[in-house]
Amino acid sequence: MAFDSYLKLAASLAVASFGGLACLVLYRVFFHPLSKIPGPKLAAISRLYDFYYDCVLGGKFVFKIEELHKQYGPIVRIGPNEVHIHDPDFFDEFYTVTSRLDKDAWYYAFVGSKDAGFGTANVDLHRARRKAMSRFFAASAISNLESSSREKVSQLCLRLRSMREAGKPVNLSNAFRCLAADSVTNYCMPKAFNLLDSIDFADDYNRQARVISHIAAWHRHIPIIIPIFMRMPRWAVAATSTEGAVMAFDFQTDLARQAADAVHAEKRSDRSVLDGIISSDAIPESDKSVDRITQEARTLVGAGSETTGNTLETITFHVLANPDKLDRLKEELAQVVETSKGSSDPLSNYSTLQHLPYLTAVINEGLRIACSVSGRLARVNHRQAYTYGTYLLPPGTVISMNIRSNHTFEPVYPEPLTYNPERWLVEGEELKRLEKYFVPFGRGGRSCIGKELALMNLYLTIAAFFHHFDAELFETTRKNIEIEHDYFSPFPAVDSKGLRVMLK
Ligand code: HEM
Ligand SMILES: *[C@@H]1O[C@H](CO)[C@@H](O)[C@H](O)[C@H]1NC(C)=O
Ligand SMILES: *[C@@H]1O[C@H](CO)[C@@H](O)[C@H](O)[C@H]1NC(C)=O
Ligand SMILES: *[C@@H]1O[C@H](CO)[C@@H](O)[C@H](O)[C@H]1NC(C)=O
């Protein structure tokens, strides 16, 4: 072909693709089944809208969505095929066990683990994969969970005692995240991380958790980022990244190795969750590949650490910032120790702690206000249409809600941004009303599998910390712990110093 024919070909290709693009834009704005749903046209046209807020600005789309709701009302089209609903009374059945919802594969791609229980989009495939590990998290597993959790809490207290002697401020944001990661890995992996052993509570590692989470948001839009990172040789990571990133890389490599060891073990066992998944007959052998088991390992650690760490940090901050609540909590704890003199340590007995009304209120209010899963919960029903008001949402529409909408619902939680455990000290119908909108662990078939382990860690840690230590906030304000960026988990501003206390 002569040069000018190339030119002509290129020109007609350009015209064609421009034309195609223009048609797509027109279709999405005017003819798409969701075209009547209010919302910004740019969001209707392209995912780039989401990309700008979540990647370029860094985890800011949740806040933009809140703004859009103020402007457009309770339903907003936030993507070409996605609506967001801000209405706690919507679809009582929507997130329940019976409704057969898929997760939106595109949204959940951020974890780079589409075959893990957490990341599996398809409802039926998910059910089997979840079943393969559910026995480890069920009520019957409580005593195993408890001993694992108790061990880690006493280790934390030991560390804090030695730091108290040193008389320096302690970064509890780090300490609590170490506790959470150790507890999850101790229970779920053949070998625990043991971050609590590190001198500075794994400062670098915890710092990079946020970097990785930001990268994950990019991965959602450009889904080759995580595989590239994981396939980089270690020297290349070391040469281009921070110490924390290298540590993260090493932990990921370690998880993959543990997964491989477990898959290739001579005898199948139930000694950790990971081993248990492999020995389960709920899933076919094809679901026991090293790759998939690695994904389970990665998501269990991811789902369990940041969430529990963030909730502990939030509770501790608010209790320390409110001396009257601090006194009341300490009094309740002292009293239970007093009345059960002689028997083994009541503060390490979960069933005893669960019956303490004020401690329970302190923890519930912390879970409510922390919203430790801050991302939207994106769901799709491929079989059924929904109506919302006058709008029809055809099958396949991605429907998202946010836990925060529920937890700040003013008619139920007056002054929703105030930490007020006393609001939970009610009974009967009044309590039921509070609980109806209280969904820190989600709801339905995709709710948190680690809920019991998480609650146990919260009860045991908060009780031990406030009974054994007198602490004072050190240069910490609410801004240091509150969400500024959403990477599915909430993160404060980049320059936040976290929760720091002086132990006395
Ligand atoms: C305070 C702590 C925690 C909170 C607030 C929390 C919250 C949640 C929420 C809201 C979901 C649903 C997410 C979604 O719909 O995409 C979830 C799922 C999940 N969580 Fe947690 N979580 C916590 C601790 C843990 C722990 C300790 C584990 C440890 C093993 C864990 C493991 C998981 C897993 C595996 C899923 C996916 C479940 C599935 O899809 O079958 N979480 N969590
Ligand atoms: C919020 O609460 C309502 C009422 O209990 C429930 O139907 C809805 O699913 C909840 N939303 C989320 C995101 O869990
Ligand atoms: C916790 O306390 C209850 C009584 O309050 C007792 O029955 C139970 O055995 C204790 N559990 C452990 C693990 O010590
Ligand atoms: C404390 O830990 C948090 C979270 O890991 C971190 O963001 C913060 O910078 C740390 N604070 C200091 C003073 O190093």
From TrEMBL:
- The entry's heme-binding residues are C448
A Pfam family matched by this chain, by name? p450
* SUPFAM superfamilies in UniProt: Cytochrome P450 (SSF48264)
Annotated GO MF terms: heme binding; iron ion binding; monooxygenase activity; oxidoreductase activity, acting on paired donors, with incorporation or reduction of molecular oxygen
Source domain of life:
Eukaryota
Q: Does the keyword ATP-binding apply?
A: no
UniProt keyword Metal-binding present = yes
Q: Where are the transmembrane segments?
A: 6-27
Q: Which cofactor does it need?
A: heme
Its keywords, alphabetically, are: Heme, Iron, Membrane, Metal-binding, Monooxygenase, Oxidoreductase, Transmembrane, Transmembrane helix
Enumerate the PROSITE patterns for this protein: CYTOCHROME_P450 (PS00086)
Family indicated by similarity: Belongs to the cytochrome P450 family.
Q: Which PANTHER family match?
A: CYTOCHROME P450, N-ACETYLTRYPTOPHAN 6-HYDROXYLASE IVOC-RELATED
Please report the name of this protein according to its UniProt entry.
Cytochrome P450 oxidoreductase
Biological source species: Cladophialophora yegresii CBS 114405
